[in-house]
């Protein structure tokens, strides 16, 4: 019988290297080998399952809009008027060209690269393109996101005592229709109410359709880490297909597959910590699309049929536009499944309850750092007897290790007899070679799920712990936690039984050093979690070794 522990160790080590390589591949724009297969669309691309027109590309560097006839580009020399409004949580810029939202600054979230500035989500600049646009299709020449509109005068700053602030745009008559857009920003809220009023000033009844979309370049967010990786790109949700991420690369290659129509659902653009999303919670038919607009420019959106508008009549549609941090509880309250933009990947089923517990601990303790420590303590307590079994097995193996080493030296030229003698010693000492491995493997999904909780939670962003740790989402500025974690990992190796195989013994010392290098660049909250976990593991292992009478 082969050395089972060595095999398990090599499997774990190899899988770790594979995961690291997969992460590096994703960081450099290559697809993940672990990505789940894309769900099958309910209709082929280009069809109209809900009786809505298939998406059609627009010319030029502007977003694609669905519709039977593509809206034309703005006339040369057309100017636009920009207006900037401020509330207590956002500073937003809107453009009268199409009545689009072209910049949103989050006043409660500091920028990583410039602590004196704030995070900018939507933006239109030389470096970035990320916009929220709307318009009409289904009627030739109808107003769209390229139509010059008139900005209606009004308040531009949310004053003390006021709870909301509105910005109104009115289009000229085009195709017999006039479009009025009203954005309403609210105090303490990252959700904007967007009202579209369609007035039929023509002579015949018409049935227009409304599209809402987010347009973004395919560049990663500023300051994206090379040591851990999060999804950036479009996503959509329906009750049937649930949460579906769409990779920019798949859109580029024309291979993006997603649900095409439903009576509910939303679309979004996702990045680490922040997201934008068009929401309509009322049940109504809608078509989803994800398109390439131009070089390195992509759109994701929805098309809604509107009621027939008689001559001289008007119809309205109400939607919500969320642009802000991925605060899980608040997102869940806005729309079904919206909290899934906080992407835990494969471990969502474990990560969500772990975040709930972490949030409860934060409510109790008032500090995310202490909440992390308390959560690790609770997890160690929950797995105490499982870990005790593993450490007891390790302790027994450490106790018989001198006998194993002597036997291996004596029978080094007789490998088959060596294995038989080793298994005899294990039987006599009542040692299970897998006893120290299986409990650890069973706990790994929980450890990885907690890793994603700590990595994905915007609540940790700029959250202090104690002394020099002023931001649990950033690396330790003095590398104190990574150094302590490395030392604790080496101490664990010393407490473990020395593997009989010299190569395996060397590997046991090399692995903590190799993996600790990454932790020097990981967020402090993650390193704190691993450090506390190591300390508690060492304490439990030391206690069990003492009970077994093992001297170090």
Explain this structure to me?
- There is one protein chain.
- The protein is of the alpha+beta class and 552 residues long.
- It contains eleven helices and 21 strands.
- It has a nine-stranded antiparallel β-sheet, with no helix packed on it. Strands 7-8-13-20-19-16 form a six-stranded antiparallel β-sheet.
- Strand 19 (286-294) and strand 20 (297-305) form a beta hairpin.
- Residues 1-65 and 67-73 have low confidence and may be disordered.
Provide a quick synopsis of the model.
The chain is α+β, with helices and mostly antiparallel strands.
Number of strands: 21
What proportion strand? 15-25%
Q: Quaternary arrangement of the chains shown?
A: single chain
End-to-end distance: 30 Å
Binned, the helix content reads 25-40%
Question: Which radius of gyration do the C-alpha atoms yield?
Answer: 29 Å
How does the SSE layout of this entry go?
Blueprint: H1 4-27, E1 55-56, E2 65-66, E3 82-86, E4 90-95, E5 100-110, E6 118-120, E7 123-124, E8 129-137, E9 150-152, E10 164-170, E11 177-186, E12 191-200, E13 209-217, E14 233-238, E15 242-245, H2 248-252, E16 261-262, E17 266-270, E18 274-279, E19 286-294, E20 297-305, E21 314-325, H3 328-334, H4 348-365, H5 368-382, H6 384-410, H7 415-428, H8 438-456, H9 480-495, H10 502-519, H11 524-547
Antiparallel strand pairs: 1-2, 3-4, 4-5, 5-6, 7-8, 8-13, 9-10, 10-11, 11-12, 12-21, 13-20, 14-15, 14-17, 16-19, 17-18, 18-21, 19-20
Helix pairs in contact: 4-5, 4-8, 5-11, 6-7, 6-11, 9-10, 9-11
């Amino acid at each position: 019988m082969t050395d089972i522990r060595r095999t398990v160790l090599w499997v774990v080590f190899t899988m770790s290297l594979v995961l690291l390589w997969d992460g590096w591949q994703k960081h450099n724009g290559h697809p993940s080998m672990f990505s789940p297969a894309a769900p099958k669309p309910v209709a082929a691309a280009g069809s109209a399952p809900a009786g809505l027109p298939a998406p059609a590309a627009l010319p030029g560097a502007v977003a694609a809009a669905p519709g039977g006839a593509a809206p034309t580009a703005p006339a040369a020399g057309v100017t636009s008027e920009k207006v900037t409004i401020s509330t207590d949580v956002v500073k937003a810029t809107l453009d009268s060209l199409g009545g689009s939202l072209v910049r949103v600054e989050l006043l409660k979230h500091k920028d990583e690269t410039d602590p004196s500035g704030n995070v900018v989500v939507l933006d239109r600049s030389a470096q970035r393109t990320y916009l929220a646009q709307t318009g009409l299709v289904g009627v030739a020449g109808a107003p769209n996101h390229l139509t010059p509109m008139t900005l209606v005068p009004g308040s531009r700053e949310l004053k003390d005592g006021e709870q909301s602030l509105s910005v109104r745009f009115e289009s000229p008559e085009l195709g017999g229709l006039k479009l009025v857009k009203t954005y309403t920003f609210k105090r303490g809220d990252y959700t904007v109410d967007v009202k579209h009023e369609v007035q039929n000033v023509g002579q015949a009844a018409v049935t227009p359709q409304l599209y809402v979309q987010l347009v973004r370049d395919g560049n990663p967010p500023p300051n994206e880490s090379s040591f851990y990786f999060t999804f950036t790109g479009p996503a959509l949700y329906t009750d049937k297909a649930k949460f579906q991420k769409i990779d920019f690369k798949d859109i580029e290659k024309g291979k993006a597959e997603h649900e095409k129509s439903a009576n509910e659902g939303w679309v979004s653009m996702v990045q680490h910590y922040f997201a934008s999303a068009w929401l309509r919670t009322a049940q109504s038919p809608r078509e989803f699309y994800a398109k390439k607009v131009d070089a390195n420019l992509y759109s994701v959106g929805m098309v809604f049929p509107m009621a027939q508008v008689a001559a001289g009549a008007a119809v309205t549609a109400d939607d919500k536009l969320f642009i802000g941090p991925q605060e899980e509880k608040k997102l869940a309250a806005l729309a079904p499944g919206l909290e899934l933009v906080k992407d835990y990947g494969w471990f969502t089923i474990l990560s969500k309850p772990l975040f709930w517990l972490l949030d409860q601990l934060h409510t109790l303790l008032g500090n995310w750092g202490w909440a992390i420590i308390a959560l690790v303590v609770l997890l160690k307590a929950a797995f105490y007897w499982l870990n005790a079994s593993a450490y007891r097995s390790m302790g027994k193996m450490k106790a018989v290790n001198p006998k194993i080493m002597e036997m291996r030296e004596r029978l080094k030229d007789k490998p088959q007899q060596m294995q038989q003698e080793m298994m005899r010693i294990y039987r006599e000492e009542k040692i299970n070679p897998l006893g120290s491995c299986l409990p650890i493997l069973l706990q790994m999904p929980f450890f990885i799920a907690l890793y994603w909780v700590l990595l994905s939670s915007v609540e940790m962003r700029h959250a202090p712990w104690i002394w020099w740790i002023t931001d649990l989402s950033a690396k330790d500025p003095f590398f104190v936690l990574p150094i302590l974690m490395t030392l604790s990992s080496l101490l664990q190796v010393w407490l473990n039984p020395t593997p009989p195989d010299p190569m395996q013994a060397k590997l046991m010392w090399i692995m903590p050093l190799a993996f600790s290098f990454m932790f020097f660049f990981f967020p402090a909250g993650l390193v704190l979690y691993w450090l506390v976990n190591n300390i508690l593991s060492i304490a439990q292992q030391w206690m069990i070794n003492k009970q077994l009478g093992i001297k170090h």
